[in-house]
From TrEMBL:
This is RNA polymerase sigma-70 region 2 domain-containing protein. It comes from marine metagenome.
Amino acid sequence: MYFDQDVQDAIVKYNESTNAAERNKIYSEEIHYAFDKLCENIINTFKFEYFDDVYIDVKQEVLSFLVMNMHKYDHTKGSKAFSYFSVVCKNYLILHNNANYKKYKSHDDISVLDT
């Protein structure tokens, strides 16, 4: 299992730390792999089709979003980190997939091309 109790504890420890070097070490050694696999699995499971970027760029974008919002996770509310970040990841992808779909489906007036 790539996202176990050790990762959950590392996220709590990361959020409680104020030392940048310590946070960087915690993230790179204990959290990065789990977040990377989580993004990979959600992208592959739900088959988001309307992204202009290649797969690796989308995955890195989602991974960055998770890291930027890691401070919002509150372990005292009773939710597991895996559940919380799965929902965050999925909602981010749905939001951007729908926005890209709207751009894809929008049609401009053809008279614009006749000038």
